[in-house]
């Protein structure tokens, strides 16, 4: 008798947990709507945010004041975005804001950067490619080895799968000579060969110091950036900008964003509020005059216009997120739910989400119904308490799992 009761309790628990995943997922699929924001870009002509909104087949082009534009007019106030179109029509100005503009200069000073929170949570294979940063020919060449960097640095021949001790020791000795402390926390670089130039990797040692590591003329180039003297480094992502102004974007543990200037390793902070690097998304569209920075948070999209030279803020705007039906429904239906992946990542990572107190209103109603409709007296109270605690998933489990005879 005890064994049957025990097994039934275990089965009810398992079915409840499965229902906490399946039922909310189905309801979310039916009620949730994707969040869409209008395209935004800061104009170097009118010094306003400009928006392109698409609803069905209708496209609205407007600025922050609400003034609407034709397609040709919109191109003219955003020459840094539509310079190819303007140039083809012979309408591209020779100078903007008192500075001469040319097609090569615009391309050199423009870039796009995206940061998604899954970058910090994605699994890392731990194998990297060390390119020659000063190649004899113009194009980078893929080496015959890869390296891993944890307890120490090791170069592995991809053909024989053997460690190249000589090269490994050469880099390890140079790292330790410059003060690098193993094991490495992480190493970040651009692994692909499809980049305009190579700057190797930036690696965070066990003491939280950020080092620049690359290979020049088959010799290790190691530098302590010293940025850890002023901030606590959380994450770095490299950006191969055409003008080589900076190495990439640096995030500290408080969520502030910086560029790491080249070749000085000076930090220049973006004049925007701190972000949540585990949940927020960032997109930057930069040109020779302004950077348009979009930060997407759960409550909406924050847009900032920064001056290109000093990254000081000149304007900002906010568009609130639409609260979809899932957000409204979930706070009433499910006291707890389980998801198999985090927001903004495709990787499996089960999480338990606890809802607000409103769910217990429905839970109480369901528990009372179960208490009065349940035929077996001995199961009324424990079953009702289980429904009160777990809500719809718990009720489903009690209805599915056969009762004791």
Question: Can you give a write-up of this model?
Answer:
The chain is of the alpha+beta class and 405 residues long. The protein has three domains: 2-33 and 327-400, no CATH class; 39-109, no CATH class; 118-278, no CATH class. The protein is built from ten helices and 22 strands. The protein has a five-stranded antiparallel beta sheet. The longest helix is centred in the first third of the chain and has 30 residues, at 2-31.
In short:
With 405 residues, this protein is α+β, with helices and mostly antiparallel strands. The protein has helices spanning 2-31, 71-77, 83-88, 103-109, 118-121, 165-177, 325-333, 359-373, 377-390, 392-400; strands spanning 39-42, 49-55, 58-63, 95-96, 99-100, 111-115, 145-149, 153-157, 186-189, 201-204, 210-216, 219-224, 233-238, 246-252, 257-261, 267-269, 281-286, 290-297, 300-307, 313-320, 336-341, 348-354.
Please give the largest β-sheet: 5 strands, antiparallel
- Low-confidence stretches are none
- Our count of domains comes out at 3
**Order of strands in the sheet with most strands:** 6-17-18-19-20
Q: Residue share in helices?
A: 25-40%
Helix count, DSSP H or I runs of 4 or more residues: 10
Mean pLDDT: 90
Shape: flat
What is the total tally of β strands? Answer: 22
* Portion in beta strands: 25-35%
Distance between the termini: 10 Å
Q: Roughly how many Å is the radius of gyration?
A: 28 Å
Secondary-structure-based class equals alpha+beta
